[in-house]
Structure formats: structure tokens, C-alpha cells
Amino acid sequence: MINKQIGSPEEAISRIKDGDIIGIGGFGGAGSPNVLIDTLIAHSDAKNLTVVSNNAGQNEEGIAALLKTGKVSKIVCSFPRMKNAWVFEELYRKGDLELELVPQGNLAERLRARGAGIGAFFTPTGYGTALAEGKETREIEGVHYVLEHPIKIDVALIKAKSADRFGNLVYNKTARNFGPVMAMAADTTIAEVSDVVEAGDLDPEVVVTPGVYVDCFVKV
Amino acid sequence: MKTEEKMALAGRVAADVPEGAYLNLGIGLPTLVANHLGGDDKEVVLHTENGVLGRWIDAPEGEQDPDLINAGKVPIKLLPGAAFFHHADSFSMMRGGHLDICVLGAFQVSASGDLANWHTGDPQAVPAVGGAMDLAIGAKQTFVMMDHVDREGNPKIVSELTYPPTGLGCVTRIYTNLGTFETTPDGNRVKAVYVTPDLTLDQIQQKTGVAIDFSMISQTRQEH
Lengths: 220, 224
What we know:
- The structure holds two protein chains of two kinds.
- By secondary structure, chain A is of the alpha/beta class.
- Chain A has one domain (9-121, 151-219): 3-Layer(aba) Sandwich (Glutaconate Coenzyme A-transferase), CATH 3.40.1080.10.
- Chain A contains six helices and eleven strands.
- In chain A, the strands form two sheets. In chain A, strands 1, 2, 3, 4, 8, 9, 10 and 11 form an eight-stranded mixed β-sheet that branches. Chain A has a three-stranded antiparallel β-sheet with strand order 5-7-6.
- In chain A, strand 6 (137-140) and strand 7 form a beta hairpin.
- The longest helix of chain A has 13 residues, at 104-116.
- The two termini of chain A are 23 Å apart.
- Chain B is an alpha/beta fold.
- Helix content of chain B is 18%, strand content 25%.
- Chain B has helices at residues 3-15, 87-95, 132-138, 201-206, 219-223; strands at residues 22-25, 45-48, 52-54, 56-58, 76-78, 83-84, 101-104, 108-110, 115-116, 141-146, 157-158, 171-176, 179-182, 189-195, 211-213.
- In chain B, the strands form three sheets. A ten-stranded mixed β-sheet of chain B has the order 6-3-2-1-7-10-12-13-14-15, with helices on both faces. A three-stranded mixed β-sheet of chain B has the order 9-8-11, with no helix packed on it.
- In chain B, strand 12 (171-176) and strand 13 form a beta hairpin.
- At the A-B interface, helix 4, helix 5 and helix 6 of A face helix 2 and helix 3 of B.
């Protein structure tokens, strides 16, 4: 019988290795998988990680707390400069954390492309700006485009509302944000969920992330 | 800008948003436009890049849900008829030209519609871009809402950007406390479609870094 539920976040986090690229869902606090992040901080020896996420955390919670451990050497994100993002700012200014700044829509589409098997794509976003410097460009029917590549994710950590044993997921309101594309992009996707329901209880018409993209989930 | 000037500016932008429009309001000054769209006489659908289309208000105290926020990360309360979607879909509808109008703040706009609003160019600044570059070029029309001059009194409507660009040739209209201006493809002038009665046309021109074509302003006003 297929059952993707596992007993503890520690078991899930043990899949993370040195040098992994970790995709983390969330937009600010909404959709941030804080239990998985806290478990990674407390129970993993993995070092030299790259984090891919929209933000870089606030105060000393979530991604900010993870950055503070020194386990992360690079972050790929669109908006690290938030209110109370002092952990990111200090590491960045000291040169202890490499930043790849990506326009938010490019971040989402590069993740989607990875999950969809697309080799690269031309997008109008960023053309003529500092964030497209050095990148291949092309004019197609009078519009200028920049070539952008997929972002490989080794392990995605996401948060959803409900899961069934097949790993089908639904989310809660705007906490959905990057979850579905992180799940698509990753070789291994781990979800933390609030509810576990019987197979059949999620209407197949409303499943947002089908279980094929989910390796395991843990109830928190 | 004084509060009443900001409100008047937001009202001027809102008046140009037609019934049925799909509208994205950037963080900061543009969020004020939402307050002027009310009423059943004109229904407008808002888009927020973190995954909602619909109509909403700031969530009242006691009804705030950390999982239901707008792009400014402010808790919202939805009105009937909304839809949720993930980030790739959200930026697809933006980049794909499905939204009618995006209203953004700016450091500078050039007469040809180049926009600078993401970085001051200060090498010491911690960079952050968010959705600015996608929003700038995505919608059918991009409006900018800003002070006519910066804190030092320098024009923010310029012939060439001196700040790093967010997008090129993307802004169609510029709304400032002194007037409403259309950009032009050749970039050698902007066309005034409204100017404040508080200043002479010469005074407005002096606060602007590029020639203004006042021909759409009434003859009476020009002789003022």
C-alpha cells in the first residue's frame, strides 16, 4: 500500500546532504514550512547548503534562523531586504553569504521549468537591467527577451493544509504561493501538513499538487 | 507629498481605471488607489502577485489570517468572487499580458517610458527586486504614481534614467502631484493630459527634466 506519510520531521530531514540545494516554500511567513526548517536547524549536520526561496527570513525565525547557523553558503531569492531581516543583512555584508537575486516571476518560472523538463526559456522580464547582464538575449517579433535557465532543487521543503496517503496536497489561501512549483522542481519534496485525510476525501477536482510531486509528508 | 495630495493623486489614477479592469497595485503609494475604487458602480478585479485575483479589504482586527495576505504582506479579507493560484500562474497572468493595468511607484521615469524603481544604484545598499521587473513589463498598461520631484527638488521625469532601470519603454502614463503625463515612443517629450491649477505651465516645466507638450491642455489654461 502506498503511504507517503512519515512519522517525524527528523526522518524527513535526514534526506538532506552536504552541498544540497534546498527549495523552501513561502512568501514572507505565509506558507513557510517552519517545523521542517527548525528540524533542519536542530537535527541535520548538512553544510554548505544553497537555499532557494522568495525571502531570506525575518527576525530569527524560519529561514533567518537557518541562515544564522552558518549551514547556508548561498541564497537564491527575489526579496531578501525585508523589515527585520538583520540576519541576512549581516551575513551578506560580511561576505559570508552569496546572493543570487532573481526577479520574482523568473524565480517561479525557473522552478516551474525545472519541474516541466524545459531546458531554458526566453522571458521579457529584466531585459535591459542589471539582472540580465551577461545573459543571452533575443528579439522575437519585436520584443526583447532574456534567456533564463531552470533552477535545480535537490530537496524542497513546503507547507500545505491537507494531504492524503498518496501525497495529494491542497493549500491554505495565499500560503500556496511557491509550494506547487517548489514541489515540481525538486528531486525530493517534503511537505509539512496540518491535516491528513483519507484517500478519496480530497476531491480530485481541487487537488493542487498531485502526489507524483511529493515524496513524503509529515503531520505537524 | 501631503496626505490630501496623495489622496487626490490616488483618486485621479482610480478615475482612469475602467469598469471590469484587472488591476495590480504596487506596494506603497499605489495601494491608496484601492480606496478610490469602491462602490458597485465600478467593479474592478485586483491581482496580487502572491496569488489572488478578486476584491478585498484590509482584514479587520480579529479577522486577520497569516495565510491570507497581499503582496505587501498585509492581512486581507476577501469579498465574494476571488480565486487563489500559485506563483508561476500569478506571474504568467502578469507577464502574459492578461492584466489591464499595473500601477507602480518610481524613483525616475524617462519620457520614453523607461522605469527605475528597484535600486538607487548605491553599491552599499542590500539589493532586493521582488516582482518589480515582472510587474513593470507585464500588464497591458503600466502607470506610475509618484512625487513630481525628489526630496532635493530634482525632476523625477527625465530624458534618460540615472538610476538602474527596472524595465525599458514600459510606462504609458505618469501620475504626479503636479499632473498626468503620457510617455512618447521617441522620448523627446511627455504629453500633459492634466496639470494642477496651482502652478503655471512654466513652473511645471521647470520641475520636469524633459520638454512637456501642453497641447492637450485647454487654450484658456495655456494663457493663464
